[in-house]
Amino acid sequence: MRDEPLRKLGFLTIGLFDGDNPRAGHESTLEIIKLGEDLGFDSAWVRHRHLQYGISSPVAVLAAASQRTSRIDLGTAVIPLGWENPLRLAEDLATVDILSGGRLNPGVSVGPPMQYEKVKPALYPDTADHEDFSYARVERLLSFVRGEPATDFAGTEGFEVFSHRVEPHAAGLGSRLWYGGASLRSAQWAGEHRMNFLTSSVVKAEEAEDFAEIQLSHIRAFRAHHPDGERARVSQGLVVIPTDSATADQKARYLAYAEKRTPRTAAPQGPARMLFSIDYVGSSEQIAERLRAHAGFRAVDEVAFALPFSFEHDDYVQILTDSATKLGPALGWKPPA
């Protein structure tokens, strides 16, 4: 058990918007990311939502964020690769990484797209039955981002000059790729392939039914199979809502939100036995005390606390401000100089 002071403080947002006025929601997300930088957060992460009222193109949003910020790391948690062509995604990721000055931290996952039977006629009308949604899809992305050949042709043809690898090539991006995993197998695979590991508020109950114990087992499995061992990077993402400066109305809504979601944390859900973490609501001191007793938290030194899905812009401002000024310091974190 590492049990070290928190080294990196990050946050994650889903970037909700009104379908009748989508620009306002996207602008709010960009403002929240800029606020995070101003407050000293080390990283800001966006989620990926297709055919919903949340960010559907995180790479494009982070390209915009890269031009409004100068220091904060920008991540995706996560891009489901079942919706993506790995070569095209590698081009987009490298482009945004270069625009950001080397601050991009792409997180990905595998598996069939959500609601696949309903969306495959639109997504893969000709190849739906032949698409490979296994880890091989991540391996393709890794090879392209890391500069391995995408073709055996390179050189000049007429006036056109061709490269054998994906261009632009962003040196260093390959070491900043993250895998979002919820199982022991995913944790081990990510370690074996020299990725970083994102562990969130959902895990698969394979060998136990205690969330923190399961999460710790995933972290240990990842590091046991990673060449960097105990130095391999893991980021924990729980829903954390400090209330130090919240109004009475905000506190009531936050508690109601957590209470509504609590029943699903009592036991594993569905055939896959997915187990959800509780949401942490309270003063920064109360939350810090609970996190310090959490086996998964004690094994990491960086986090990306998730903002709740359905709150208002002012709520996120309050939560982020308290997280950076109260909760982070209570966990031993210090903002950059």
From TrEMBL:
Residues 26-293 form the Luciferase-like domain. The keyword Glycosyltransferase does not apply. InterPro entries: Bact_Lucif_Oxidored, Luciferase-like_dom, Luciferase-like_sf. Keywords: Monooxygenase, Oxidoreductase. The keyword Heme does not apply. GO terms for molecular function: monooxygenase activity. It comes from the Bacteria. Pfam families: Bac_luciferase. This is Monooxygenase.
